[in-house]
Specification:
The chain has nine helices and ten strands. The protein has 336 residues and is an alpha/beta fold. The protein binds 5'-O-[(R)-(carboxyoxy)(hydroxy)phosphoryl]adenosine and zinc ion. Zinc ion binds next to helix 3.
């Protein structure tokens, strides 16, 4: 076995088609094609996402190979997202990887997308030391994970209903912002007062999260206000966004503080699409300074879905010779 392999990685779990090449401790390329068409429909249309992955996967892989300066025949192993995600989307990446591995007679590594969001922290320096806590916040997940080693992770808490990204996207939609609303809500919030309006904060036991109460509280508040003032949202958009964002982030930080207290771990990381949120990034650093944490926040490119993070899990699986067979199929649900 080659102990310094050139790895091609593929990500296709939702609406981003991405390919990356990893060699000698470095990501050599990371190309992502985002399907913007879903904006028109206010959410990801699974059937359309799958068809677009089929159209994009070969050009995206070609561009990743070209940028890294390699040919198909240079690749030693292929890593791919097996789940969790949209089944039709995952199937495109899984089928591509299987065909590639078969044609080239090279090993393949099946990757858990949520583990990959966490190992995004090992793409560049500074890297967290084990054990560390990772708050993984995306469109489909909200978890606090204790990471003991590259591939040894334990979920300490997770959402019992909506994910934080979903809370951002759904409240943004109520405020008239197009999908995906999270980044747009973040932008609007920059000019608003985070304490202008107060929304429900759930009380959930242990290290679990809940966001459905917040969503309902925003909905009822808006219904009440717009009955007497048709332009209420328009006239208060920045304050509404800032207040919603304040509440979502406050809930995340409180649970992270609790997890750090209970475990005694002070290496704290955030990952996943919502870790791109400007308030969360600021708050993690502020609270981290107060509590003597070493905090780790990925570069924006590595927060949202990308194949570079898939390559990282693939690399550590390769070192363990943890390869998968041609018989495996995609998994819509797959716990960390
Ligand atoms: O990890 P990701 O790219 O895809 C999933 O695996 O779900 O996360 C996407 C989520 C979406 O809900 C999106 O609105 C949210 O991340 N997001 C943000 C920001 N950027 C992306 N939420 C709040 N503020 C942002 N700046
Ligand atoms: Zn993701």
């Amino acid at each position: 076995m080659n102990d310094n392999p050139i790895i091609l990685a593929i990500e296709s779990s939702c609406d981003d088609t991405s390919a990356a090449v990893y060699f000698d401790s470095k990501i050599r390329s990371n190309i992502t094609s985002t399907q913007l068409i879903h904006k028109k429909y206010g959410g990801v249309l699974p059937e359309m996402a799958s068809r677009l992955h089929q159209q994009h996967i070969i050009p995206v892989v070609q561009e990743a190979l070209d940028e890294a300066g390699y040919k198909i025949f240079d690749i030693d192993a292929i890593a791919f997202t097996r789940g969790p995600g949209l089944l039709g989307s995952l199937l495109v990446g899984v089928s591509f990887a299987k065909a590639f591995a078969l044609a080239r007679s090279i090993p393949m590594m099946d990757v858990n997308h949520m583990q990959a969001h966490i190992l995004a922290h090992f793409i560049e320096n500074p890297k967290p030391a084990f054990p560390f806590l990772c708050l993984t916040v995306s469109g489909g997940h909200t978890q606090i994970v204790q990471v003991n080693d590259y591939l040894d992770m334990q979920v300490l808490g997770s959402t019992i209903d909506d994910a934080a990204g979903e809370a951002f996207d759904k409240t943004a939609k109520m405020l008239g912002l197009p999908y995906p609303g999270g980044p747009l809500l973040d932008q609007q919030a920059r000019n608003g007062n985070p304490l202008a309006f107060k929304f429900a904060e759930p009380k959930v036991d242990g290290l679990n999260f809940s966001y459905s109460g917040l969503k309902t509280s925003v909905l009822y508040f808006l219904q009440k206000q717009t009955k007497t003032d048709k332009h209420f949202i328009q006239n208060n958009l920045a304050d509404l966004c800032a207040s919603v964002q304040y509440t979502i982030v406050k809930i995340l930080i409180e649970k992270l503080l609790k997890a750090a207290g209970e475990t005694g771990i002070s290496e704290i990381a955030i990952s996943g699409g919502v870790s791109a949120n400007s308030r969360l990034r600021k708050e993690i650093n502020r609270v981290g300074m107060q509590n003597g944490w070493n905090t780790f926040i990925p570069r924006l490119e590595y927060c949202t879905d990308n194949a570079a993070m898939i390559a990282m899990v693939g690399y550590y699986k390769y070192l363990n010779q943890d390869f998968c067979s041609q018989k495996i199929s995609a998994l819509a649900r797959w716990p960390v």
